[in-house]
Amino acid sequence: MRRLRCRNRREDGSSSPVYRVDVVDRPRLDAVAVLVYRRGASGLEVLTRMNLRPAAFFRKDNRGAMTVPDPASGYLRVEEIVAGLLEPEDKGEEGLRRRAAEEVHEEAGYKVNPEDIRLLGGSFFLAPGILSEKVFPAAVDVTGMSPEEPEGDGSPLEEGTQLHWRSIHEVLEACRRGDIPDAKTEVALTRLLALQP
């Protein structure tokens, strides 16, 4: 976390007043989010994960800072899609696809090849006013594949993770209702749907 004191310099030579900007930098600045999907009798189904999310959980301790009351009693677990930080060796599109395939195996148990990963357009910021992390959305079709038991990465954040398969439209509606309060999940869902014939 960095707290910066900034001032805008304008083309006419004038300056804005000094203002504060809080910046949260993670150890790695780029991440990949992978929508794992399959084709079933009822259409597209997607895999989500329920993960421990302490940052979302401890939001409840700052109710005085909320201008809109939050009906949730706490977000100990948040439902989202497979995701992970890019490592220093994950360079370019090849590295992005390789990392996506590794995260799918680690978090969902499916062994996919990097060339099976479908990139879903440009990367995006989740909260550009404070977070420097950019997310690269991707998807992979695992129709007909059998998963192994996901190994995880050994992080305590992955303890007790639960996997769920549901219709893509059911998951999208859950995002829009706020039952799945994860932006990268909704972005990946809408981008994949836009590419469907």
UniProtKB/TrEMBL annotation:
<feature type="domain" description="Nudix hydrolase">
    <location>
        <begin position="27"/>
        <end position="188"/>
    </location>
</feature>
<dbReference type="InterPro" id="IPR000086">
    <property type="entry name" value="NUDIX_hydrolase_dom"/>
</dbReference>
<dbReference type="InterPro" id="IPR015797">
    <property type="entry name" value="NUDIX_hydrolase-like_dom_sf"/>
</dbReference>
<protein>
    <submittedName>
        <fullName>ADP-ribose pyrophosphatase</fullName>
    </submittedName>
</protein>
